[in-house]
Design a protein that fits this description.
By secondary structure, this protein is α/β, with parallel strands linked by helices. It has three helices and five strands. It has helices spanning 10-19, 53-70, 95-109; strands at 4-6, 21-24, 28-34, 40-45, 78-84. Helix 2 packs across helix 3 (95-109). The model has no long low-confidence stretch (mean pLDDT 93).
Length: 113
């Protein structure tokens, strides 16, 4: 069963981005904020200036797929937003690179079980 809900509304993103703690990897950045609910919330935002729609959607799919691999290992009760760094070329958007970044971010945030 899926334990994570997606953040969809603008105010949900703003809340996590303004009040969440910032963690950075080589390609992705994350804002993680504890929530009172017993599930995780995930948001992914890729800026329009970074690439055209097809490439942005590919990056989102890669982030979502990597997140699914960690979903069972994460502590419940967090809201997180992942952003693609503006200065990083989209050619570096590979499954392995994003996996390394996510592992690093989750270790820094101490939200892995």
């Amino acid at each position: 069963m899926k334990k994570t809900e997606m953040l969809k509304k603008n105010y949900e993103f703003r809340n996590v981005l303004s009040k969440g703690k910032y963690y950075s990897g080589k390609q992705i950045e994350a804002f993680i904020k504890p929530s009172k609910q017993n599930q995780n919330f995930l948001g992914i935002a890729i800026g329009v200036k970074i690439a055209k729609a097809a490439k942005r959607n590919k990056i989102k799919r890669l982030i979502r797929e990597n997140y699914k691999n960690y979903e069972d290992k994460l502590k419940q009760g967090n809201s997180m937003v992942f952003l693609w760094k503006k200065k990083v070329d989209t050619k570096q958007a590979t499954f392995q690179n994003i996996k390394k970044d996510m592992q690093e971010i989750f270790d820094k945030a101490k939200i892995l079980n």
